[in-house]
Amino acid sequence: MEKWKRSARLVDMTQQLLSQPYRLVPLTTFAERYQSAKSSISEDLAIIHEVFSSEGSGRLETVAGAAGGVRYIPQMDLDHARQVLDEICERLANPERILPGGFLYLSDLLGEPWLLSHIGKIFATAFAGKKIDAIMTVETKGIPLAYATAQYLQVPVVIVRYDYRVTEGSVVTVNTVSGSSRRMKQLSLSKRSLEEGSHVLIIDDFMKAGGTVRGMIDLLAEFKAKVVGVGVMVETPAEEQLIDGFVSLTQVTEVDVKKREISVGLGNLFMEKEERS
Amino acid sequence: MEKWKRSARLVDMTQQLLSQPYRLVPLTTFAERYQSAKSSISEDLAIIHEVFSSEGSGRLETVAGAAGGVRYIPQMDLDHARQVLDEICERLANPERILPGGFLYLSDLLGEPWLLSHIGKIFATAFAGKKIDAIMTVETKGIPLAYATAQYLQVPVVIVRYDYRVTEGSVVTVNTVSGSSRRMKQLSLSKRSLEEGSHVLIIDDFMKAGGTVRGMIDLLAEFKAKVVGVGVMVETPAEEQLIDGFVSLTQVTEVDVKKREISVGLGNLFMEKEERS
């Protein structure tokens, strides 16, 4: 194998690191791949780190020692996150989203890979530094969001079902009251999908009173799992809030079906931690 | 703004291109961003293209002229795809996947971001060059696969539902016979999720007789949409096959519940097009 030039190494390393966030890559792996000295690899990594961090798009973390190496930590700085969320807010405010009953149509936003990838990176930044073994969401609309976040945190996604499916094996089921429909709902999670004692991040698309998220937390208690955070894309105020300390990206404060107006703002991500409801 | 060094440009351009597959970026965008001559940008792009294509991980396509620019086309060469799918086959063959009734537990595989991202790239490679406006899948397990593929093709995902939800607005509903449960099922798609006449790629996790995919094709007919392809992760032979010309990544030929054995092989992706059932 031939020695790689620096220019080719930089392109290839950037690609390799971006494709596996949080994974520790030993410097020897790179040194062998490129037939280059570790000192050259270290210089390359310094250049990559400098570009990522000055662009606010992430950073490289170096771990010293025999078991050491380098890992890519994805990040999105608050300015960029605000730009993305301002755009989402603008699109959320489109009165054509209003459905009978005052519900909002969100499926178009939740189907756009560009937007999902950005939201995933925002959530990954918000919950960076926490020990996370898995991301939990509930079918159906939460799934793309959870998956987008999981790609940046490189942890598996577990999906809670509203109804039992034969393809899930044994399940644990809890009851919860859905805030939006005021009906009892069952939430089920396959027993084999989550190890006992896991640290779990909950991600969902929409939260009002938080009945569904409450149900997921109850379900996690059955697995003796620890909830390390709750992130929702759209929060809408409720008289009785069942959840504390969640992170919301946007807030829909009012849907006026008659006037066909939607009041939208940024979520509590931009507040200090203490101010979050 | 300062002129960027080549090394920093290469890292940043690689990141930019990878994050937006198929999007045409004008050379002037790069030239202005880096305060560099177009000739230097062209040299950078040649280096990136060379690394991507020699690693079999994609290529850059240059479009000449005033409206021209460069776009990143993600690809995974067949050797690499085979490695990934061999690993998936090995994991599929684990007898612990066998559920009562001979069903297979797949949710763990469909929750792993690393694996999903690779499968997404394999599907994106298999259907590259086709005009695709949207990817369609059915809830629940198809969603992560569809989304992973959509990230590499940069097209939106539309999700077919088994039951009508208030948050979908008006829907079109068709009936279909599910092969695995031999029962009639309803499939619904929100009217506003797909424009009439769209070119649609169908992606799903599992296919036996193809009843669900058949239902999706019927649903697409209601939208006057064109099916440009069907891709499934796991195919299992059925006496009566309702679908022609699909692409499968793996094949589960037998699940012996008594002996606790699963027979798994590569799908028809590796066959010549004419040989596909």
Could you name the key traits of this structure?
277 residues; Rossmann fold; six-stranded mixed β-sheet; two-stranded antiparallel sheet; 7 helices; 26% strand; WH-like_DNA-bd_sf (chains A, B)
Notes on the structure:
The structure is a homodimer of 277-residue chains. With 277 residues, chain A is of the alpha/beta class. Chain A has two domains: 6-74, Winged helix-like DNA-binding domain superfamily/Winged helix DNA-binding domain (Arc Repressor Mutant, subunit A), CATH 1.10.10.10; 78-275, 3-Layer(aba) Sandwich (Rossmann fold), CATH 3.40.50. Chain A is 33% helix and 26% strand. The first copy, chain A, contains seven helices and ten strands. Chain A has helices at 6-19, 27-34, 38-54, 78-92, 113-126, 142-153, 211-222; strands at residues 58-63, 69-74, 134-138, 157-160, 171-178, 183-190, 199-207, 226-235, 247-256, 261-266. In chain A, the strands form three sheets. Chain A has a six-stranded mixed beta sheet, sandwiched between helices. Chain A has a two-stranded antiparallel sheet with strand order 1-2. A two-stranded antiparallel sheet of chain A has the order 5-6. In chain A, β1 (58-63) and β2 form a beta hairpin. Chain A is globular, with a radius of gyration of 21 Å. Chain A starts with 5 loop residues before the first helix and ends in an 11-residue tail after the last strand. The mean pLDDT of chain A is 93. At the A-B interface, α1, α3, α5, α6 and β4 of A face α1, α3, α5, α6 and β4 of B. Chains A, B: Residues 121-259 form the Phosphoribosyltransferase domain.
